[in-house]
Amino acid sequence: MATLNSFITFTGRLGNVIAYTRNGRHYLRTCPERVRQTGGTRRAAQWFGAASRKGALIRSAITPDLGIHCDGSLVNRLNSAIVHAGRNNHAGLLGFRFNPYTDTRMFFSQPPGRFKDGKLHIPAQDLPVHGGATRMEVTVIATRIDFGNRRIIGSDASAVDIDLEQPFSGADLFVEVPGKGTLVITLQVRLFVGNEVLLNRKYKAADIVAVVENVAPKVQVAVHHAHPLCVVPSAMVPVIAGQVIVQRE
Questions:
Q1: Which terminus of the chain, N or C, has fewer Cβ atoms within 10 Å?
Q2: Residue 185 to residues 56, 87, 154, 159, 176, Cα–Cα distance (Å)
Q3: How far apart are CA 77 and CA 145, in angstroms?
Q4: Which helix (H) or strand (E) holds 92?
Q5: 102 to each of 95, 129, 192, 193, how far by Cα in Å?
């Protein structure tokens, strides 16, 4: 591996040389003369490729609506989270931080409540003040993604400006994105002094706080025995109006 320091940079393959970027720096490496793959390594490579495509879909769906800058580690961190979660386990996205340096929970003395029926409730509380901020902007971003067909169905956002110099009496944020697919709920927090946003990465955050899956209605199966009828639920997952909701505590 070599570092590319030229003013002219490129990515991709050129002859037997591959150029790529990592954490904002440019590197070069040569192509291997021969690649030996077992069945296991081939399946792992295919799964990593699928995870990378899913990560690209999530980034293109959510990051345009964010008001924070995502650093160069986002691609690798998101792909790793998808790989570790396993196939079709979208709940594995829960808690993912678009800004790896700050968690949204640091901005509240009582965390926001559970996302339910299109509403996120922030309870009344004494809000901590960081960096001399006078105002806090809280935004809920809902993004519906059809992972099976690789489609972004739509998005919606709701925001509230909180005066940190006044008592906070609570707030409700409502979002709605109808359609099929997985609904990903992102909570974003930014701090301001007056009308100027604080640029320090410690004073802004965006985390995935809930994942809502559309599922088929729960069906009960009748099992006949010599004894009276026994009814067995087909699944033991929490379902609300045809949805499975997974969210951060």
A1: C
A2: 17, 20, 12, 13, 11
A3: 20
A4: none
A5: 12, 15, 16, 19
- Contact present, 143 and 177 (Cβ < 8 Å): yes
Domain ranges (residues) in the chain: 2-35, 41-213
Contact yes or no for 83/96 (Cβ under 8 A): no
For residues 216 and 3, what is the distance between their CA atoms, to the nearest angstrom? 52
Report yes or no on whether pTM surpasses 0.90.
no
Single out the residue of 131, 127, 91, 95 nearest to residue 111, CA to CA: 127
Element (H, E) at 175: none
Length of the chain as a residue count: 249
pLDDT 10s digits, 106-119 = 999 999 988 888 99
| DSSP 8-class letter at 222 | E
Cα(140)–Cα(175) distance, rounded to whole angstroms?
A: 7
Terminal alpha carbon distance of the chain:
43
Q: Which of 197, 243, 178 is nearest to 217 (CA)?
A: 243
pLDDT in tens, 144-184: 999 999 999 999 999 999 999 999 999 999 999 999 999 99
Q: Hey, CA dihedral for 6, 9, 11, 15, is it positive or negative?
A: negative
In this model, does residue 243 exceed pLDDT 80? no
Residue 120 makes CB contacts below 8 A (sequence gap 6+) with 112, 113, 140, 172, 173, 175, 185, 187, 209
Give the Cα separation of 64 and 195 in Å (integer). 22
Residue 16 DSSP one-character state:
T
- Mutual angle of helices 74-85 and 39-62, in 10-degree steps: 120
